[in-house]
């Protein structure tokens, strides 16, 4: 039995449009990969606080769960859309890079925070950044379901 490579999908998750987009992207990737999407597979801060968990405890539980999921992943796939990058995504990407994970970006949004493009701490932390979702999915499927990734 072939084991699927694991992807940690780092993406903003603070409004309905972001949540819906993340689910759509995960659905496309699930065909070939084992995808961890924090909004679906992890813990959500607002849900835990609503259930009576203290904010400090809830924050620690979310943090620990997401850190473990990044450690367990082969790839950190970061959705980089927006004029300014989501803080959680930036952290997840940086942590993944720091522990030697393959880091890939998806930025289909033309807005950028710098006249030269992305912040170099983001662009240089990513092995590749794709502007078109179809290209990303195709590249991952062709290259990352093999033993070695073609850069």
Which features characterize this protein?
Rossmann fold, five-stranded parallel sheet, 151 residues, 14% strand, 7 helices, alpha/beta, 5 strands
Report on this structure:
The structure is a single chain. 46% of the residues lie in helices and 14% in strands. It has helices at 16-29, 38-41, 45-50, 55-72, 87-98, 120-123, 133-144; strands spanning 6-10, 34-36, 75-79, 102-106, 128-130. The protein is globular, with a radius of gyration of 15 Å. The mean pLDDT is 90. By secondary structure, it is an alpha/beta fold. Strands 2-1-3-4-5 form a 5-stranded parallel sheet, with helices on both faces. The longest helix is centred in the middle third of the chain and has 18 residues, at 55-72. It has one domain (6-144): Rossmann fold. This is Nucleoside 2-deoxyribosyltransferase-like protein. Keywords: Transferase. One of its GO terms (molecular function) is 5-hydroxymethyl-dUMP N-hydrolase activity.
């Amino acid at each position: 039995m072939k084991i699927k490579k694991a992807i940690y999908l780092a993406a903003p998750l603070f409004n309905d449009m972001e949540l819906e987009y993340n689910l759509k992207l995960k659905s496309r990737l699930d065909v070939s990969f084992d995808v961890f999407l924090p909004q679906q597979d992890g813990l959500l801060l607002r849900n835990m606080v609503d259930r009576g968990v203290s904010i400090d405890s809830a924050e620690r539980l979310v943090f620990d769960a997401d850190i473990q999921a990044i450690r367990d992943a082969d790839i950190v796939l970061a959705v980089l859309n927006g004029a300014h990058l989501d803080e959680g995504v930036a952290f997840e990407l940086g942590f993944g890079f720091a522990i030697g994970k393959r880091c890939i970006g998806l930025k289909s949004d033309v807005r950028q925070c710098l006249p030269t493009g992305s912040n170099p701490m983001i662009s240089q932390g990513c092995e590749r950044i794709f502007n078109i979702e179809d290209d990303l999915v195709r590249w991952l499927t062709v290259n990352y379901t093999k033993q070695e990734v073609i850069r």
